[in-house]
């Protein structure tokens, strides 16, 4: 970010501050100022006088997080500005990989090494940024524009991007086997999960949502005996209407998955070499491994401790900006206009908008219709979840080959859909009819 001084009156235009009184947003670069903009103090125009650069702020853009969101911003920003210093701080190894691949990697024989697209050194060279792996941020000082690392080191920034991701929700279960419940939230978790599977046969999954069903299908296809426990009456109960849930349940059961629905896990106990799940109904399930996939919780603790507003996620405006003008958030940790969208497509759109803003061209994020592909090969499924705050109802067409469920308002306008089996071929046509998620 640069600062320029009016030679007539001495007014300083600071790109990091902008000119809010005249609707020039913080972060607007000098070259993006409207040609009719005038000096707030003396009224001369850009073309009438020359601004003198009085200082270059050489602190970097810091990105905290090396997941899809962090890398997407770095990649898009580097396209727009080849010289801007960028530092990525990663709590883990800092390599780049596609996290969504983890839930169907086993049946494809994918090892952690084959999933990794590039390690930290390779990605730093490719993007021409600095990446610091195993470097955990423990505090943000927004008043001094600095972050503090776990070893006490402070790094100063011009602009800070929080791409912190989300944690797997841990249920408050009873029993002496709870500590052995596994989750997969990153590549290291996947390695641990693969190691734990060696010599095992029976896997219980708590949660029949998106991740639970994807892992269930993947494990069953790899030859494991899979039990899935969920409190809802159907799998994917938050995404699918009952007919869709029944269809995917039937297809996954045909693949070997056993469902325990309308059921709540009460305890997990170690019984000799196995784990025993006890449900509130009294039913027990014996397993070699218990895997939890009950949902994600945005990582907000770091932001909240710094005085940044949080709700379900880190609260940001359409510029993905917190209440502090040079601190931004995106991805699974962010809440944009009350929406927390832990999927790939929102990250892609957010990263492009935020990169433009960081490069000096403030750009509001817009979300088009963004269908979610459920990676269950036994039952191809794509969902564009409707906004259920809008009055409407599901219209269902179902047969042995698939389910087409359209959520329409009272005027018949399409607001969302769920397509399973053969009906997935209508995805492109129906997506074109959907309203944007955020215009």
How does the SSE layout of this entry go?
Layout: E1 2-6, E2 12-14, E3 51-56, E4 61-64, H1 68-80, E5 86-89, H2 112-115, H3 120-127, E6 130-132, E7 137-141, E8 146-149, E9 154-156, E10 159-162, E11 166-168, H4 187-197, E12 202-206, H5 210-221, E13 225-229, H6 242-254, E14 257-260, E15 265-271, E16 274-279, E17 284-287, E18 289-292, E19 296-298, H7 301-305, E20 314-316, E21 327-329, E22 334-336, H8 344-358, E23 372-374, E24 381-384, E25 393-399, E26 402-408, E27 414-421, H9 427-431
Parallel strand pairs: 4-5, 4-10, 5-6, 10-21, 12-13, 12-18, 13-14, 20-22
Antiparallel strand pairs: 1-2, 1-3, 7-8, 8-9, 11-19, 15-16, 16-17, 23-24, 24-27, 25-26, 26-27
Task: Provide key terms for this protein.
439 residues; alpha/beta; Rubrerythrin, domain 2; FAD/NAD(P)-binding domain; five-stranded antiparallel beta sheet; 20% helix; globular
Please give a structural write-up:
There is one protein chain. With 439 residues, the chain is of the alpha/beta class. It has four domains: 2-56, Rubrerythrin, domain 2, CATH 2.20.28; 61-168 and 297-358, 3-Layer(bba) Sandwich (FAD/NAD(P)-binding domain); 178-294, 3-Layer(bba) Sandwich (FAD/NAD(P)-binding domain), CATH 3.50.50; 380-431, 2-Layer Sandwich (Enolase-like, domain 1), CATH 3.30.390.120. It is 20% helix and 27% strand. The protein has nine helices and 27 strands. A five-stranded parallel sheet has the order 6-5-4-10-21. Strand 1 (2-6) and strand 2 (12-14) form a beta hairpin. Helix 1 runs parallel beside helix 8. It is globular, with a radius of gyration of 25 Å. The two termini are 29 Å apart. The model has no long low-confidence stretch (mean pLDDT 94).
């Amino acid at each position: 970010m640069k600062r320029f001084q009016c030679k007539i009156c001495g007014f300083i235009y600071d790109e990091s501050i902008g000119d809010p009184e005249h609707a020039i947003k913080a972060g607007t670069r000098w070259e993006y100022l409207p040609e009719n903009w005038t000096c707030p103090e003396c009224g001369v125009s850009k073309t009438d006088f020359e601004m003198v650069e009085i200082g270059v702020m050489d602190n970097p853009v810091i990105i905290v997080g090396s997941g899809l969101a962090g890398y997407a911003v770095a990649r898009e920003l580097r396209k727009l500005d080849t010289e801007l210093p960028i530092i990525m701080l990663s709590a883990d190894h800092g390599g780049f990989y596609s996290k969504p691949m983890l839930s169907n990697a086993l049946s494809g024989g994918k090892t952690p090494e084959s999933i990794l697209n590039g390690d930290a050194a390779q990605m730093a060279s490719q993007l021409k940024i600095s990446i610091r792996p195993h470097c955990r941020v423990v505090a943000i000082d927004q008043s001094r524009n600095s972050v503090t690392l776990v070893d006490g080191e402070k790094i100063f920034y011009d602009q800070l991007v929080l791409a912190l991701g989300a944690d797997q929700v841990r249920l408050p279960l009873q029993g002496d086997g709870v500590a052995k419940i596994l989750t997969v939230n990153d590549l290291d978790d996947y390695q641990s999960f693969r190691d734990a599977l060696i010599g095992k046969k029976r896997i219980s999954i708590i949660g029949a949502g998106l991740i639970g069903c994807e892992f269930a299908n993947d494990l069953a296809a790899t030859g494991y005996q899979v039990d899935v426990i969920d409190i809802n009456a159907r799998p994917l109960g938050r995404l699918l209407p009952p007919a869709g849930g029944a269809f995917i349940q039937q297809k996954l059961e045909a693949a070997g998955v056993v469902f325990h629905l309308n059921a709540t896990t009460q305890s997990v106990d170690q019984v000799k070499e196995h784990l025993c799940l006890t449900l509130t109904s009294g039913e027990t399930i014996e397993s070699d491994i218990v895997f939890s996939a009950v949902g994600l919780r945005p990582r907000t603790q770091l932001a909240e401790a710094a005085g940044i507003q949080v709700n379900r996620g880190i609260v940001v405006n359409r510029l993905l900006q917190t209440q502090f003008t040079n601190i931004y958030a995106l991805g699974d940790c962010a809440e944009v206009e009350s929406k927390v969208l832990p999927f790939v497509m929102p990250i892609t759109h957010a990263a492009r908008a935020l990169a433009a803003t960081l490069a000096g061209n403030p750009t509001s994020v817009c979300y088009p219709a963004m269908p979610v592909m459920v990676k269950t090969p036994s039952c191809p499924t794509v969902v564009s979840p409707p906004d259920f705050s809008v009055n409407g109802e599901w219209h269902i067409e179902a047969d042995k080959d698939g389910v087409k469920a359209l959520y329409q308002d009272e005027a018949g306008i399409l607001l969302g859909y769920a397509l399973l089996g053969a009906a997935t071929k209508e995805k492109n046509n129906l997506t074109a009819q959907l309203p944007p998620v955020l215009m």
